[in-house]
Amino acid sequence: MSHRASRRAPCHRLGESANPDAQGALLRNFTGITDTGWFPPDTVVAVGPEHVLTATNVGYAIYSKTGRQIRAYTTMDAQFASLRPANWAANGGFMFDPKVFYDASHQKFVMFTLGRADVTETSHFFIAISQTSDATRGWWMWRFDWPETTTWVDYSSISSDSWGLYVTGDIFYFGDGFRYVQLWTINPAMFSGGASNGWRFWDLRWPLAGDPLIFDMQVARPQSVSGGAETFFVNSSAGSYNQIALWKLTGDRTNAPALVRTSIPTGAYYPVYENVRQPDTTARIDGFSSQMIEAAYSQRHVWASLGSGENTATPTWGGMYTARLNVDSNTMNWDLLVWTANQYYTFPAVTVAQGPVDATGPNVGLFGTWTAPDRYASAIYYLYDPDGAASFINYRSGDASYIRRDDSGRNRWGDYSGAAYDWTCGTLWGAAEYAGTSNRWGTQIAEVDFTGTGACPRIDVTMPLDATTWYAGNTATVQWSNSALTAGNQIYIRYYDNGVYGGQLAGPLAITTTSWTLTMPWDATSLGQMEVGAWNPTTSSWQILDRSDAYFTLAAAPDLNVSSFSVSNGVVPITYIVTGATMQLSANVNNGGNGTSAASTLRFYRSADNVINSGDTQLGTSAIPALIAGGNTGRGYLTQDTGSVGTWYFGACLDVVPNDPPGNNCTASPVAISVRTQNIFANGFE
């Protein structure tokens, strides 16, 4: 059943949900990248199995799904430093307009940024693809050079599917003025670090009378497998209009693929421009044109999202417009305009839930910014359920009015917000901008319950961290946080060396446990990781696993022990002796660890009981040199101090050296000696 949502003010509620298990509930909310000195921030976000990757102009940061920052803000210039053209800084080179997303078909993160050098009038774009699903590990990276020296690339879009990687861009003259839109289709071998050849389309135009140029084409990011090996793109008009162009790409993405266009009638949309009102000032914020912001694909449908305002030169409200396009019939079968009088909802980013596409599904999620005469620019999300429910949540209020003008005098905001579907959890993630104090922007990241299934189980290993050094054979404490674990599950701790399983170190533990002290294995490495998991003993399966994000160093360590202690008369062991006679004490010191020890001292003791320690009577010492792994030395000490008549215990203890695990540095089995006043033999007879 096709339907179109009313263009009246929708029913919505403001503020955080009181029910954390309700559809649309805010599950996670934390601060992302704050003002970098660049504006607008161009906020985007991507979510993989373990990590949240977010980017703004002109860098990125990585977070755990619990909101802990794992990788601090890193500039794109630093990320792609090895690929920058010669004399990059001297030629006025800079990077901008980042994009990030997670490709579920290849299970890799993709990071993208534009770059240009004004002195040489050259333009580039840079792509990084994670080598695994882990955003903190290695990346393959490429630089693509725009072949013209008089134009540069802006307002790009990037996505991928099983058949290729796709980049679109608006082409402008360095001397000012728009030229055309270009589309690159690139070999999917890039997802294994391979070839990056492809095909280019340029001078793309509407299929309408007059053959007008299109502007700001967006790739429809897949939320399901594209049937028929098709990839979809959309564009709108930057001005007032009532159509959206749908583009379908088929064929070999590296060799003359086919690109077919259709213009589909939609609801009317209108630009907002610099008319967004805010408190404490008459300065208006730039709400942007009605050019396409973002698109998503699922089950033979495309959701296209853009900003739209009142049909007037000075709109008193702005809304978030989404149209659902049927890619088989080339028609619009649903659209939605989220708006409220005297309020402005701008820069919408869209994604959709899984499931069949019909009159009651799937859910649609939007992230963007909310501003009003009594509302500083704030981060919001809107969750729309076609079956009738809608949620409108302000999840980070702005702090002050915002005035920050570019070279053209515009009070810039946007140009993007970020929305991402969590393929491992089924939740919605987003990143949107808010106005901070002193004309500075900030970004806020949120996780939303997309379909009413509640929060997903989470474990986040917080220790070890970067630069953590532990020592083989020694004790260390692993720490983690957890949430939403199922009762009856059990916690286990496992060790990995450079990704290779090294064994279980602890478990089962109660699911309420968040730290555990254990003995480290004897595997020296700089690539150690700890994994904490919740195991379901009923189903014999893991509910959730998390490995430490940082590699830690497990340094080699000595393991000194005292062994083979004996008491002799200098020739054979003895069990008794007369007072004043000479006896010899000896022991071996062994290094059973995997690291060289420092020099130490072996101390000999006489004790009244069979426990030897430093509180007993010390008889003498022997110097022990540094011992390599596997090294040992025998040391002896002669004495006539047998003690008084009775039974005495003799043994030895070794001074502890750095990183030597305690517990085996004293004689395990002291020797008991009976001390008597006279020889029990007389003239050779008893």
Description:
The protein is mostly beta strands. Helix content is 1%, strand content 51%. It contains one helix and 45 strands. The strands form ten sheets. It has an eight-stranded mixed beta sheet, with no helix packed on it. Strands 30, 32, 33, 35, 36 and 37 form a six-stranded mixed beta sheet that branches. A five-stranded mixed beta sheet has the order 39-45-44-41-42, with no helix packed on it. A hairpin with a 2-residue loop joins strand 18 and strand 19. The longest helix is centred in the first third of the chain and has 4 residues. It is elongated. The N and C termini lie far apart (115 Å).
Sequence stretches where pLDDT stays below 50 over 5 or more residues? 1-20, 681-686
What is the residue-averaged pLDDT?
Answer: 92
> What's the oligomerization state?
single chain
- Number of E-type strands: 45
Largest sheet: 8 strands, mixed
Our count of helices gives 1
Structural class: mainly beta
Strand order of the largest sheet: 17-16-15-14-18-19-20-21
What is the C-alpha radius of gyration, as a whole number of Å? Answer: 35 Å
Please state the overall shape, judged from the principal axes of the Cα atoms: elongated
